[in-house]
């Protein structure tokens, strides 16, 4: 269902929008967890280590895709907020073309440099063959992964977070079924795990296309919409490229940590992989609120309603604080039982190793939550450079902490790398957000006239579309 987020109670709208995102993210993480359980229990610790050691490389690709497609659809959301349906369709066309180019470049790059990248990550030789098999199958489906995420972001840009949820649930359940089929029945090993993901996403992409064709008339493209414009491309890429770089930098930092972790052997890799899966599940409320802020911010920025963005972001910051405290307590006191879902209770050393990471990282969930809020608010307003700077700060702090602290304190040093990076990143996006809002407040009358134009549905005559101005409408 399409939702205009430029009117109504900001808190109610954002929470309502974030609930399907949260449910969808949880389902996605439950799939990831079930995949690890299936691999760890049905194949073995070495297979789990192979998946865990190569997963950060896939994580980099996925974050680049998420950053790029999410950045493209910021413009889609801004045009929708400005009540410019032609602009929405033009945004869709240019996003589709840009995404096809991205998927082609990524596929070719991975085809030629996959093994070298795993070697750089210090993947142990005893698990290298399995790690290569796993990542090769996933990379074969990159074009489908790009397509699925782009279609989901289109629907979210129009305020519909429910429909992507339904497709995500469907994809996750199908994925689990296919993994069991390929691994347990057909004995395909780690290849079965990756193949299940690709097949499930393929079916979901087809379902998304059919559904959009029937239920989203605003996205129905005509021949004139396919007229490409260099200025419009630039407008999209000015947000999408910094966002994809930002996401890739964050993922590269995770790769550095994983590379250092890989040097400690398969048991530590298995423990670290299990702990990260639990952390990813626990922080999904923070992720969902952040994603909701992105759409809320983009639509209201397109409508020129800066004060409304401020109110929504403040409310979400408080909500994120509450969730951070609750989830930190939940993981600290229930973490051991959760770890034993992945790893047999007889492997006490592995369980203790995983607990060490969770006991440290939970103390810093607040900073991670604030990153999600302010980073997404800035990106929704088209301010991609500040989040990019924050991601660079995160990378430097994470890399230095991982390498230096690991040498001084071993595995415990690795556990502090991400929390230290969260603190640095949070400071940058918080300060950047407040400076941006202060600057936009100086253009009060421009914003008011733009808001009035949208309210009267004459924004095309009196307030130029963001696609055709030299800078985003303030």
Strand content: under 5%
**Strand-pairing-aware structural class:** mainly alpha
Rg (CA only): 22 Å
Between the first and last Cα atoms, what is the distance in angstroms?
28 Å
| Overall helicity | over 70%
Outline the structure in words:
This protein has 474 residues and is mostly helical. The chain has one domain. It contains 18 helices and no strands. The C terminus is likely disordered.
What are its keywords?
83% helix; single chain; 474 residues; globular; mainly alpha
What order do the helices and strands come in, and which of them pair?
Layout: H1 10-42, H2 45-81, H3 85-120, H4 128-140, H5 142-157, H6 162-185, H7 190-215, H8 230-262, H9 266-282, H10 284-302, H11 306-342, H12 348-361, H13 365-380, H14 385-409, H15 411-415, H16 417-441, H17 444-455, H18 459-462
Helix pairs in contact: 1-2, 1-6, 1-9, 1-10, 1-11, 2-3, 2-4, 2-5, 2-8, 2-9, 2-10, 3-4, 3-5, 3-8, 4-7, 5-7, 6-7, 8-14, 9-11, 9-12, 10-11, 10-13, 11-12, 11-13, 13-16, 14-16
Would you kindly provide a brief summary of this structure?
The protein has 18 helices and no strands. It is mainly alpha-helical and 474 residues long.
């Amino acid at each position: 269902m399409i939702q205009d987020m430029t009117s109504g109670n900001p808190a109610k709208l954002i929470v309502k929008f974030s609930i399907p995102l949260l449910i969808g993210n949880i389902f996605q993480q439950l799939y990831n967890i079930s995949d690890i359980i299936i691999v760890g229990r049905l194949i073995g610790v070495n297979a789990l280590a192979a998946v865990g050691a190569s997963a950060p490389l896939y994580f980099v690709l996925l974050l680049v895709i998420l950053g790029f497609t999410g950045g493209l659809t910021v413009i889609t959301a801004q045009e929708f907020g400005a009540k410019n349906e032609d602009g929405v369709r033009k945004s869709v066309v240019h996003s589709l073309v840009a995404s096809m180019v991205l998927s082609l470049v990524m596929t070719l790059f991975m085809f030629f440099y996959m093994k070298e990248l795993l070697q750089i990550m210090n993947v142990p030789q005893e698990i290298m063959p399995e790690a290569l098999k796993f990542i090769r199958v996933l990379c074969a489906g990159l074009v489908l992964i790009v397509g699925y995420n782009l279609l989901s972001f289109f629907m979210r840009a129009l305020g519909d977070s429910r429909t992507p949820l339904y497709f995500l649930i469907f994809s996750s359940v199908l994925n689990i079924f296919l993994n069991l089929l390929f691994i347990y029945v057909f004995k395909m090993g780690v290849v079965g795990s990756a193949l299940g993901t690709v097949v499930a996403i393929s079916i979901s992409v087809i379902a998304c296309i059919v559904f959009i064709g029937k239920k989203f008339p605003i996205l129905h493209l005509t021949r004139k919409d396919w007229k490409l414009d260099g200025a419009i491309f630039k407008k999209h890429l000015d947000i999408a490229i910094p966002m994809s770089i930002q996401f890739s930098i964050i993922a590269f930092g995770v790769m550095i940590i994983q590379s250092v972790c890989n040097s400690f052997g398969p048991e530590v890799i298995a423990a670290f992989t299990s702990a990260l899966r639990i952390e990813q599940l626990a922080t999904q409320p923070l992720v969902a609120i952040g994603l909701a802020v992105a759409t809320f911010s983009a639509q209201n920025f397109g409508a020129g309603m800066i004060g409304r963005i401020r109110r929504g972001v403040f409310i979400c910051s408080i909500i994120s604080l509450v969730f951070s405290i609750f989830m930190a307590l939940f993981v600290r006191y229930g973490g051991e039982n959760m770890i034993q879902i992945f790893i047999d209770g007889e492997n006490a050393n592995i369980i203790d190793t995983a607990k060490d990471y969770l006991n440290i990282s939970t103390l810093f969930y607040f900073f991670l939550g604030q990153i999600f809020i302010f980073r997404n608010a800035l990106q929704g307003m088209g301010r991609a450079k500040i989040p990019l700077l924050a991601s660079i700060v995160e990378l430097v702090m994470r890399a230095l902490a991982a390498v230096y602290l690991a040498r001084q304190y071993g595995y415990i040093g690795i556990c502090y790398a991400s929390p230290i990076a969260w603190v640095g990143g949070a400071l940058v996006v918080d300060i950047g957000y407040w400076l941006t809002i202060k600057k936009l407040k100086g253009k009060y009358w421009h914003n008011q006239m733009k808001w009035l134009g949208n309210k009267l549905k004459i924004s095309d005559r009196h307030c130029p579309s963001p696609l055709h101005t030299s800078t985003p409408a303030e």
